[in-house]
Amino acid sequence: MIPYIPERLNADEQRRRALAFYQEMDERRSVRFFSDDPVPRDLIDQAILTASTAPSGAHRQPWTFVVTGSVDIKRQIRLAAEEEEKVNYDGGRLPEHWREALEPLGTDWRKPFLETVPWVVVMFEQRYGIGADGSRVHNYYVKESAGIAAGMFIAALHHMGLATLTHTPSPMAFLTTLLGRPENERPFCMFPIGYPAADCVVPDLKRKALAEVAVEVE
Ligand code: IYR
């Protein structure tokens, strides 16, 4: 064990920081219309490092971030994702209630943004780890750990002025083969990353009020 003694802030400073951080995060929106302006590669690495500070079961950090800026691979990802989404939207794989739920988002099977963006990051969860001798290492709370890291990843990107979308083309198994990932990894979430297009629009969403998402028990 090592000492951990972060600076203790006074309550006024805490409120100032809390409000500023909330306001910044409240401005984040999932973006589906991107510009093809380039994004420096080192920014992506910095966001991955931040995501990787997430707590994880037994500190296994059971994730791999696969980054691609390859025109060819982005095209293959787009074509494969659209193939699956055509079955979802037009082939009747999405149940009626799901189609209705997506209506306000205006989504359909077309995913041109997967080619427009400078970077696509695919986050894989490691169902189990591989020890130095090649043996299987048990991972714990893999989904929870990956979910927290994904949240920190999108927060990091937003903080540096980049836009993304938590995109889960369904099913996502094609990404394992396409990106040449090993058997212990499963696609968790895909993140197209770039700047919003000049004419980007987003749904007019309202976020739930505090009383709708929090209760106090006395
Ligand atoms: N994966 C599909 C459908 C979709 C599902 C949910 I839940 C969303 O919040 C948005 C889309 C697609 O990407 O279009």
Task: Describe the fold and architecture.
The chain has 218 residues and is α+β, with helices and mostly antiparallel strands. The chain contains 8 helices and 6 strands; from the N terminus they run H-H-E-H-H-H-E-E-E-H-E-H-E-H. The relative contact order is 0.21. The protein has helices at residues 11-26, 41-51, 71-89, 96-102, 113-116, 142-159, 174-178, 210-213; strands at 63-68, 119-126, 128-130, 136-138, 163-164, 185-194. Helix 2 (41-51) crosses helix 6 (142-159). The structure holds 3-iodo-tyrosine.
Biggest sheet layout? 4 strands, antiparallel
H/E series: HHEHHHEEEHEHEH
Helix content: 25-40%
Bound ligands: 3-iodo-tyrosine
Q: In total, how many beta strands? A: 6
The overall pLDDT average reads: 97
